Amino acid sequence: MVLLGQFLEVLVGGLLAGVLYSLVALGFVLIFKASGVFNFAQGAMVLLAGLALVRSLDFLVARGFPLWSSIILALCFAGVIMAITAWLIERFVLGPLVNQDGLTLFMSTIGATFILEGASQMIFGSDVYPLRLFPTDAWFLFEGLFPGGILVNKLDVWGGFIAGILVAGLAVFFQRTKTGRALRAVADDHAAAQSVGIPISWIWFVVWLVAGLVALVAATVWGTKLGVQFSITFLALKALPVLIIGGFTSVPGAIVGGLIVGAGEKIAEVFLGPHIGGGIEYWFAYVLALAVLLVRPQGLFGERIIERI
Amino acid sequence: MTEALAKPAPVAKTEAATPILGVHNIEVIYDHVILVLKGVSLEVPEGGIVALLGANGAGKSTTLKSISNLVRSERGEVTKGRIEFKGERVDGMTPNDLVRRGCIQVMEGRHCFGHLTVEENLLTGSFTRRDGRGAVAADLDMVYAYFPRLKERRNSLAGYTSGGEQQMTAIGRALMSRPTMILLDEPSMGLAPQIVEQIFEIVRDINTKERVSFLLAEQNTNVALRYASYGYILESGRVVMDGDSKSLRENEDVKEFYLGVGGGDRKSFRDVKSYKRRKRWLA
Q: If exposure means fewest CB atoms within 10 Å of the residue's CB, which of A100, B62, B159, B166 is most exposed?
């Protein structure tokens, strides 16, 4: 019973932590789907969104604004910053590179990463800024059933809740709206989308804006967890195995991939760690991704490649 | 066949009041070095069907793409000449601008959105419209009336439909933008003869009922000249001959090179070569 309790606790903790990885991975998926670009700058966008949010929030609170209205204002401000970023990236980075090789575009996003990281720290500062949007204490569930109960972090639950809303919202946006349909059309065939009058530059702006807003959501949760700081950009590296496992083109894949990575690495750490040495958490996801690459290169939910003969 | 010949009223080039589309002496260069079109001129009268004929690589697709301006996203550029649509200069506009003005291209090889359903494909065609859901829904019904087959397949992914259905989807999608001019690139490509005939019948239907003008690029000279009223023949980036369909069909050279009939008393391949070498078409 103790073991089962421990297992459940690790599993739930891992799954919820995995949702937070999914939040970052989602931004990648959106951009990759619509433009075929692997956006290396997603991590930097999370940092930028987080810094814009926390600094404006601190500023407003220090001026004596009530907390709730400052949070809303700060979120709006960060949203505007992400919109400007999306516009700048479309205008100056991707716009001139239309119809270039995927690798070229990827390289350009690496460049954008450094500029975003530098600029955001230059403008908003480079300290560690604590963000307190969500409760960070824990619940103890099923105390009658297991000795000590199962510890569940409230922040992680919030993260899961927000991720759920986000995914539902994105699904509605992609499936039900005209712009969403146009986004999927562009993802399928750039040239044909252009031929029916869908303006590619507008679509790319929308995609980067949506990815920026997803980064903002990720920043609210991660910022509360770690504090808004430079190391948030390394989340991008954790999102990579999530994407490989779930598939680069699938929104549900990003979620499931995140869950697998989160649960897998925590369980491996706790139950395998003592036997083969600790630190498994840091490389387990990558090994998992490698295994998936060998068996199913498009990922679990990667787009079916439709080929008619 | 004879009925098909009689139907389109031949439009004399000279008397067309203001052509809906005028291409004047355009030159197109790809990648700054490759000269693909060397001074192409053509006109499409309002409500007409005009065929653009020629072999592979003659420049048919490039001509259409330079009108719709998709050529720019393939690193091509119209360097000389001008293109007028409804009297307005349109070279240098984006494809989006042109679709808004009523000129849309159906690309060679269909280019349906494979992961969207047939109906979603059709709806993407209405992206530029601002006249509300009701009007779009009405046009969706209109497209289904022209292509009943698409209504049956409305919920299948376009990627899994047959070539003919994809061509119908592509034409229907263009129709959803409420165009006055459709640039139709190689609609017969890879399709069975009956399907080709069916699609051309629908094109003519659309032409007469919706008053949509067509400029169609085709390798299948025979079919194209039966449905078009006027034709231009392109050879390595130049218009080498033009005329109304009837005169083109009866022209000995067209018969020999494009329709695959006649050719007189040639007996050996040497004659072919010398004939071709001597006879250059330069309009």
A: A100
